[in-house]
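User: I've been trying to design a sequence by hand for this structure and keep getting stuck. Would you show me what you'd pick, starting by listing the structure so we're on the same page?

Assistant: Good idea, let's start from the same input. This is the structure you sent:
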């Protein structure tokens, strides 16, 4: 092989490497854009928690792959109506028993998730699973759960409990893909729960 042929082979090899690198970077950019658009604020939360964009995106990709393995089904109209009726009762309960209402709201949201096909074991796994289909309201679910935990330690005010109900209602509505109720949670006069 003469010098010219070696130069051509090296140049072609370099071009292949450059094209492969550009292709890889473009694929990563498309993946990042797709994940960012799909997960919205959940994307930022996960990337921040993981401390690295690549690790955060890998977590979100794994969530998506896990979700694809689940058999998520829509609620039948009769099941949806029963859940809406149950939610109305839980929301009304808040006036006389905010603590019980929050506990029942948590149970009801978990029941809806289970009927739809989401596994309902560990809270963090539930939140991760539901984040794939409901990325905007999953933060509401986390906030409501956090308030419920503070409530169990006696550290949540009635206003905190009202906020938990608002957060649960947001996820509940999203899970039912229906506008259940636009009425607000009634306020109580007591300062502490």
């Amino acid at each position: 092989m003469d010098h010219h042929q070696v130069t051509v082979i090296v140049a072609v090899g370099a071009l292949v490497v450059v094209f492969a690198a550009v292709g890889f970077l473009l694929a990563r950019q498309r993946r990042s854009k797709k994940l960012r658009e799909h997960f919205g604020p959940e994307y930022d939360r996960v990337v921040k928690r993981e401390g690295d964009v690549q690790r955060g995106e890998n977590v979100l990709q794994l969530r998506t792959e896990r979700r694809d393995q689940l058999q998520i089904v829509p609620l039948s109209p009769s099941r949806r109506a029963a859940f809406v009726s149950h939610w109305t009762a839980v929301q009304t309960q808040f006036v006389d028993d905010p603590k019980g209402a929050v506990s029942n709201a948590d149970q009801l949201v978990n029941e809806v998730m289970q009927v739809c096909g989401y596994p309902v074991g560990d809270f963090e796994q539930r939140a991760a699973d539901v984040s794939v289909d409901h990325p905007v309201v999953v933060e509401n679910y986390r906030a409501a759960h956090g308030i419920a935990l503070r409530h169990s330690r006696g550290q949540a005010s009635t206003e905190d409990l009202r906020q938990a109900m608002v957060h649960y209602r947001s996820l509940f509505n999203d899970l039912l893909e229906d506008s259940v109720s636009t009425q607000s949670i009634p306020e109580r006069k007591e300062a502490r729960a």
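That's my pick for every position. To get oriented when you compare it with your attempt: The helical segments are 3-39, 41-50, 53-69, 77-93, 98-116, 123-133, 138-152, 158-176. Confidence is low (pLDDT under 50) at residues 178-193.
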